[in-house]
């Protein structure tokens, strides 16, 4: 058991921003972008979830990222109309960093929590999760906190005074993540951040996210900056430094006054993906680390992924509801009422996207909308002296107009659902290079290389 809790140590250090192009990552001495379709963040806190099978499935599907929550936040059954929600453990199957007391009365069964004591079995499970992920090339984005969207979530949190023996947290849900109205919780929140940062310092396949969707539930920017400061202060006395990620907004906004320690700026439901262009000047990774609420079909999320990454994003995480306890291989068939999608076929499409981009020297490419002719519905990444990647997210195109740099360019069309490649011939550079488009369904990609 002790051996399982020890991390895998690598000489090249934790995942970090690429020094030549900080819009992407450097991991194990290789340029890296993160593409995945992962479970709903309960892999560690839900004792019924077999994370080994889950991580094995991600790796086998060619994906390299997962996102998971600490347990400071947990959901009730039926939240957001999610069937078999991994963030909603069965009664007495919830585990978190804080230990249980001897006093009964936790809202979902079992004793209340003691916020002055740590549950070592939780940290053992968490380290096993990280080690197993690292051995399979999977990066973990570890989300420390989450707003309480409704009273139903706040009623289950260990930070709620009803659920702990420490007489703290006797407040409303919109005051939990503040510096001045938190009912004594701030010291325990800082303590949790210090504990997990210290316990996990040796792991290289790790990034710390401050808070999920802090634009809900009264989470203040000052509080977020304080948690970022705590992470930085804690790691000053430790061997390794990890990336800090921050969730900025749903859809899009321009980042204002960023904390200097934040290296990854995440958005949810990032469509249209011009949020990348708005924030490209930060010279940090821009991520889309949650999708959903657009139905259960593949196409909306596939198009979102291609558009976001071809616009210059460096991280995409689809929220995949086919991963549940008992179906950790991603085989659960959720009802049509599910707020999002995910399935084995979609994961193959995400692997195809990742492989497409990794087939380029993407570290030396930049978003280049000028490649596209007027009115062309797409996004382009380019190294104008060498290669160009384009995605068109609109059905029915018969031909497209591109502004190609001088020279001769060989074109290949790629089906985003199957990976089938159709030769597109050689094309001379110029401001109005017209290319015929092969038959396709909803969206299609184009690979151009200098002859």
Primary descriptors:
alpha/beta; 8 helices; TIM Barrel; 451 residues; 8-stranded parallel beta sheet; 2 domains; Immunoglobulin-like; 6-stranded antiparallel beta sheet
Structure description:
With 451 residues, the protein is an alpha/beta fold. The protein folds into 2 domains: 361 residues, TIM Barrel; 83 residues, Immunoglobulin-like (Sandwich), CATH 2.60.40. α4 runs parallel beside α5.
- The CATH class assignment of the largest domain is Alpha Beta
Beta-strand level of the residues, as a percent range?
A: 25-35%
Biggest sheet strand line-up: 4-13-12-11-10-9-8-5
State the major sheet.
Answer: 8 strands, parallel
* Euclidean distance between termini CA atoms: 56 Å
* Helix/strand structural class: alpha/beta
Order of helices and strands: EEEEHEEEHEHHEHEEHEHEHEEEEEE
Total helical segments = 8
Please give the structural blueprint.
Layout: E1 16-17, E2 25-27, E3 30-32, E4 34-38, H1 51-60, E5 65-69, E6 98-104, E7 111-118, H2 120-135, E8 139-145, H3 151-154, H4 186-199, E9 206-211, H5 221-236, E10 243-250, E11 262-268, H6 275-279, E12 285-290, H7 299-310, E13 315-319, H8 344-358, E14 366-367, E15 378-383, E16 387-392, E17 399-415, E18 421-436, E19 444-450
Parallel strand pairs: 4-13, 5-8, 8-9, 9-10, 10-11, 11-12, 12-13
Antiparallel strand pairs: 1-2, 2-3, 6-7, 14-15, 15-16, 16-19, 17-18, 17-19
Helix pairs in contact: 4-5
């Amino acid at each position: 058991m002790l051996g399982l809790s020890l991390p895998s140590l690598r000489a090249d250090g934790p995942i970090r921003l690429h020094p030549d192009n900080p819009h992407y990552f450097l991991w194990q001495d290789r340029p890296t972008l993160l593409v995945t379709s992962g479970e709903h963040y309960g892999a560690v806190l839900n004792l019924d979830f077999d994370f080994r099978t889950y991580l094995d499935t991600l790796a086998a599907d060619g994906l390299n990222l997962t996102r998971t929550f600490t347990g400071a936040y947990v959901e009730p059954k039926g939240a957001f109309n999610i069937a078999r929600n991994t963030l909603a453990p069965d009664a007495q199957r919830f585990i978190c960093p804080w230990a249980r007391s001897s006093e009964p009365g936790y809202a979902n069964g079992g004793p209340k929590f003691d916020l002055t004591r740590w549950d070592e079995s939780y940290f053992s499970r968490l380290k096993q999760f990280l080690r197993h992920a690292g051995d399979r090339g999977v990066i973990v984005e570890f989300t420390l906190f989450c707003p309480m969207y409704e009273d139903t979530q706040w009623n289950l949190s260990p930070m709620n005074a009803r659920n702990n023996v420490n007489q703290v947290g006797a407040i409303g849900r919109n005051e939990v993540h503040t510096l001045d109205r938190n009912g004594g919780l701030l010291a325990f929140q800082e303590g949790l951040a210090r504990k997990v940062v210290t316990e996990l310092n040796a792991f290289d396949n790790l990034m710390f996210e401050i808070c999920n969707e802090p634009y809900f539930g009264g989470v203040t920017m000052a509080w977020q900056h304080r948690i970022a400061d705590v992470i930085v202060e804690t790691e000053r006395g430790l061997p390794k430094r990890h990336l800090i990620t921050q969730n900025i907004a749903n859809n899009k906004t321009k980042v204002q006054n960023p904390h200097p320690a934040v290296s990854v700026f995440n958005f949810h439901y990032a469509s249209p993906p011009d949020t990348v262009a708005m924030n490209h000047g930060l010279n940090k990774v821009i991520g889309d680390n949650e999708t959903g609420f657009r139905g259960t079909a593949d196409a909306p999320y596939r198009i979102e992924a291609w558009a976001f990454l071809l616009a210059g994003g460096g991280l995409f995480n689809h929220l995949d509801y086919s991963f549940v306890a008992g179906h950790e291989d991603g085989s659960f068939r959720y009802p049509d009422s599910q707020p999002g999608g995910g399935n084995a076929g979609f994961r193959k499409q995400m692997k195809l996207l990742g492989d497409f981009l990794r087939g380029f020297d993407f570290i030396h490419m930049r978003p280049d909308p000028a490649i596209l002719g007027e009115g062309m519905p797409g996004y382009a990444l380019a190294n104008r002296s060498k290669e160009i990647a384009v995605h068109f997210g609109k059905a029915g195109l018969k031909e497209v107009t591109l502004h190609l740099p001088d020279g001769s360019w060989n074109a290949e069309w790629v089906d985003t659902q199957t990976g089938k490649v159709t030769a597109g011939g050689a094309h001379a550079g110029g401001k109005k290079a017209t290319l015929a488009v092969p038959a396709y369904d909803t969206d299609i990609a184009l690979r151009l290389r200098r002859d």
